[in-house]
Amino acid sequence: MINSVGMNSNYVQYCKPVFTSQAQNNVAINPNVETKTPKENTNLIMQYLENQARNNVSSPYNVSTPIWTHAFGNCDNMKVTDAQGNVVQNVEFKKDGDKLTEEIFVKCVNGSTVNKTIINDGNKKSMELIFRNKNGEITGQENRSYEKIDNDTAISVHNGKTYKISGLSSDVITVEHNGQKKVIDLAKKIQPTLDTIENEPTQKQISQEQREFLINSVKKLSGDIILKFDEEIDQMVMLDTDEYEGFYRNDNGVRKLKLSPKVKDDMTFIHELGHAINRIDSEGNDVNQNNWSNKVCWSDNKDFAKTREVEMNNFRNRCNNDSIIQPMGKFIYDDFVKKGYVTYEEAQQDGQDEEFAEMTGFVNCMDVDWINERVPCMLQFMPDSTQMVYKKNQELL
Ligand SMILES: [Zn+2]
Question: What are the two backbone dihedrals, phi and then psi, of residue 382, each rounded to the nearest 5 degrees?
Answer without folding.
Answer: -130, 55
